[in-house]
Amino acid sequence: MTAIPGDSCQNAFKDILNDQFREEIYNGFINDAVLPVLMDVMAYAHDIVDALERSNQSPAVACGPGCSYCCHSQIHVLPIEALLILSFINEYFTEKQVLLLMDRIEQRLQRTQGKSLGTLFSVKDELPCIFLENGMCSIYQVRPFICRAWNSMDSSLCKKIFNSGRFDDEIESSSARNFVFESARSLFADFGRQLKLETVPFEMTQAVFKCLKTTDPLPLWLSGQDILNVNNPLEPASSRVDSSDDHGSFEADSTVQTRPVSREKEYINYFYGKYKRRLAGYESTGNDSQVHSFIFQNIYGKSIGAIALNEGVSQNRTVHIHHLRAFVLQNGNGTQMLLELCRKADCFNVRLSANLSPNKTFSHWDFKVLTNWYERFGFKGDAGVCRIPRQG
Q: Taking the CB of residue 300, how many other CB atoms lie within 10 A of it?
């Protein structure tokens, strides 16, 4: 009997994945390059499984081309997996293929809405995966982790169960595949939660449908917005009550509640909600624009610097950056922080500005170095620099 890895083994393997990919995954999120990293992790997991099966440490599975019994099930995918599928569709599907895909999606959604698992299993032969074509997966290169994990040691048993109508029968499978791919999947779920991103799995047909219907869903998701569970959007930081202060009782002001939140405020709200630590005594209000301080942390939870942001008063749709103890050039923390600030500014379509004028604590040498450094991120100007958000 093959031993099934326990929680302690899975945690140990996740630690290995963390050591191998933690920085790459984090930088992928910061630099809008997380989908290639996801594919790297998928390939790495496959290399491990292949090595185990070649060395007979894990039995080979019976799955192969044309065997698609499990491709008639309803599966759930992470938002990042749905976005990877979307990127593949956008790159490789023709316009005709996309139209046919949308037809299959709408037909499947109509057939499955409100149906129980037992009812769906009884008509499973009429509900193939939306990506199953002639018994083959049309998105095989980017199929979700659960498709990679599902397997069988006996394809004839899969056929027997498929034709029997008993959806609760068990099929012997490779515990190694389940273990490796589930560990890799949970790694991305963990990172998403740490970065305050949508991570709740969604039924794949609905997930792909929502991604196809949304304009540029990847930047929206990376900015912290829900793209799948759109009926439950993230609550902006400006609407939360700070429990550390005694606000007393108050009556709801309908005028304030219905006032639209500016993009600049939404941008600041994102960082206000993500980074909870503040610089004592720095919160201030002036010229109708409140200054908010944030202590940035890396993926390990270590503080790497502090800045403050406020809505620009003289320019519309501009957020001003106050340096504080932010940009320590020699250890790279400044680059890491400014990359995230710029990436989110592109997502929220806001300008960024900063004042680099020399003063008592800011020498002419610092001014020259920082001016050149800011230019690398698209800032332009002399003493006061400004960055226009990138489109597309």
A: 9
